[in-house]
Amino acid sequence: MSDYEGGPANEDDLSLPRATVYKLIAEMLPEDIACAKDTRDLLLDCCNEFIHLVASESNDVCEKEAKKTIAAEHVLTALQDLGFGKYVTEVQEAYDEHRKQQTKDRGRKSTKLSQLGMTEEELLRSQELLFAEARMRFQSQTSQAQSNGNTPGSASSTH
């Protein structure tokens, strides 16, 4: 049984961020239209209920296929089963766009390394050298402070 079916201990644990939903509502409405707080709260409750409904149905589809992880296909099937078939194409397009963006972001991360012009081993050696130099500077400062009668981290100034 999910937490939701058993009654949530803390409703905020199973809710969309209120400010985010309010912002989406404001962006969707024309500038000359205001939305009462009660209406925004009702829309927030509807959004939460919709997500729980789709998640629960997606879980059922996933279990029917003897899978342990809900995949995008399970969500699309759940939308169809729940009578939201006319949105499946738009949801699939949004998902495809999301996947493209993820691939692009991954590509950017890998090109940063290749643009440095050094192999991973060379970068590691360079990092180790920088750490060794920093360690030597620190030890030098520490020994210098000790020879002056100060201990590292102690306040030696007299006022």
Structure at a glance:
The chain has 159 residues and is mainly alpha-helical. It has helices spanning 18-28, 37-64, 72-81, 88-115, 120-147.
Description of the molecule:
The chain is mostly helical. Helix content is 66%, strand content 0%. It contains 5 helices and no strands. The chain has helices spanning 18-28, 37-64, 72-81, 88-115, 120-147. Helix 1 (18-28) crosses helix 2 (37-64), helix 2 (37-64) packs across helix 3 and helix 3 (72-81) packs antiparallel against helix 4. The radius of gyration is 28 Å and the shape is elongated. The termini are far apart. The model is unreliable at 1-6 (pLDDT under 50).
State the main characteristics.
66% helix; disordered N terminus; 159 residues; single chain
Uncertain ranges: 1-6
The Cα radius of gyration reads 28 Å
The whole-number mean of residue pLDDT values reads 85
Order of SSEs: HHHHH
Question: How many beta-strand elements?
Answer: 0
Helices, strands, pairings?
Blueprint (H helix, E strand, L loop, with lengths): L17 H11 L8 H28 L7 H10 L6 H28 L4 H28 L12
Helix pairs in contact: 1-2, 2-3, 3-4
